[in-house]
Amino acid sequence: MLQITRVDIVDGQTLDIELSNGHLILFDTQRLPKADHSYDSLRELNALPRPSTDGQNIFWRDGPRIALQEILGWLSTQIDLK
């Protein structure tokens, strides 16, 4: 099963996610779904605090949680295979 092995912040807003298969994901948190207000607290910050991971989720203390499967789903909808 694919796991998150490390997560950090780049440029204040982008998640640098390392996966157990060696792949890296750079995910801009400004692209989180605006309709989901649970992420509003992240959007309001100029620079995100460093998140934690339990292998399947990225989370902030007393803050939101983002599941790896959600991130992979969002990325798959953004890929243009033309």
Q: Could you walk me through the main structural features you see in this protein, from its secondary elements to its overall organization?
A:
With 82 residues, this protein is α+β, with helices and mostly antiparallel strands. It has one domain (4-78). It has two helices and six strands, in the order E-E-E-H-E-E-E-H. It is globular.
Structural class category: alpha+beta
The 3D shape can be described as: globular
**How widely separated are the two ends?**
29 Å
Number of strands: 6
Mean pLDDT across all amino acids: 90
Proportion of helical residues: 10-25%
- Our count of domains comes out at 1
Number of helices: 2
Summarize the helix and strand pattern as letters. EEEHEEEH
Strand content: 25-35%
Largest β sheet strand count, sense and barrel closure: 3 strands, antiparallel
What's the gyration radius in Å? 12 Å
Strand arrangement in the largest pleated sheet: 1-2-3
Low-confidence stretches: none
Q: How would the blueprint of this fold be written?
A:
Blueprint: E1 4-10, E2 14-19, E3 24-28, H1 40-43, E4 52-53, E5 57-59, E6 65-67, H2 68-78
Antiparallel strand pairs: 1-2, 2-3, 4-5, 5-6
Report a brief summary of the structure:
By secondary structure, the protein is an alpha+beta fold.
Structure characteristics:
alpha+beta, 3-stranded antiparallel beta sheet, 82 residues
